[in-house]
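Researcher: We plan to redesign the surface later, but first we want a full-length starting point. Tokens attached.
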């Protein structure tokens, strides 16, 4: 009932331990708190909170228009609803190195388990679109050092995302990743890798976990979990997949409503009311109400 019982610090510790054990961890993207709970129920390892999803949720493009307040607030709403660790997209850190430091502490306070900071120039662009630019290595490493120095919980995971592959190639991406690890990054998120060989080369070149972004309609093939594991990847995210599925279903439902005047033909595609109530633990709330608010009138009191 209400929120998760696992403390944020414990979620971070568990995430660290599982990565240290060499496991591959699966983090589907949650587009709201309820979907985070569903991800947990389906047996996944963590929840990813995408900047692209957060901006889309506001009806905005993913070009750095969201604020730290908006991202941290939505991140807290999602992270507190699940026992799983949540990793969040912190874009370029929302400003200069001091802003990056504040971002990390704010996300810690929001109960997040880890965040990635990228090396794009502001205003950033979606990692799988053309026309990106990256900052120089000094600026990129300053952001990561600021993030590492600012965290108060040593188990808070600092991931460094680099977008340089699409601009200067794989060798440049490996070189940039090494510099980011030297700056203190706990894991590397190499964006827009072209094939499994590139993931494998990145994993072999570094001694920290590698994150693979399996976003649809992008520059990377949609590899299976087993393929990525064999390539040395330890974290896999599907950042926008559930939102795309939900919006596709909503689009079809609205068309059906226009064409048929009702949604009876779509009932089989809907989450049943009983399943929704089970997911949100409706019975737990009823039990709480009956124990706290049910009372009996003392007849002796009423007779006085």
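Model: Full-length starting sequence:
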């Amino acid at each position: 009932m209400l929120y998760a019982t696992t403390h944020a610090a414990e979620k971070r510790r568990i995430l660290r331990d599982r990565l240290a054990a060499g496991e591959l961890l699966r983090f589907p993207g949650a587009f709201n708190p309820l979907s985070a709970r569903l991800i947990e129920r389906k047996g996944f390892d963590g929840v990813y909170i995408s900047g692209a999803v957060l901006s889309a949720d506001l009806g905005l493009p993913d070009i750095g228009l969201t604020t730290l307040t908006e991202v941290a607030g939505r991140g807290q709403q999602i992270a507190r609803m699940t026992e799983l660790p949540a990793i969040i997209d912190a874009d370029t850190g929302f400003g200069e190195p001091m802003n990056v430091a504040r971002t990390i502490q704010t996300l810690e306070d929001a109960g997040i388990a880890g965040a990635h900071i990228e090396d794009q120039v502001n205003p950033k662009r979606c990692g799988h679109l053309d026309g990106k630019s990256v900052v120089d290595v000094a600026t990129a490493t300053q952001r990561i050092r600021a993030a590492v120095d600012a965290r108060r919980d040593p188990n808070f995971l600092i991931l460094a995302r680099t977008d340089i592959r699409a601009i200067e190639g794989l060798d440049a991406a490996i070189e940039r990743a090494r510099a980011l690890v030297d700056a203190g990054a706990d894991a590397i998120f190499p964006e827009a890798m072209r094939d499994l060989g590139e993931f494998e080369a990145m994993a072999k070149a570094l001694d920290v976990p590698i994150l693979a972004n399996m976003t649809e309609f992008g520059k990377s093939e949609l590899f299976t979990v087993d393929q990525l594991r064999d390539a040395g990847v330890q974290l896999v995210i599907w950042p926008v997949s559930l939102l795309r599925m939900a919006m596709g279903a909503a689009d079809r439902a609205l068309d059906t409503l226009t064409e048929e005047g009702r949604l009876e033909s779509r009932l089989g595609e809907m989450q049943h009311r009983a399943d929704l109530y089970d997911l949100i633990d409706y019975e737990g709330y009823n039990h709480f109400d009956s124990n706290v608010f049910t009372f009996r009138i003392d007849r002796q009191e009423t007779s006085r």
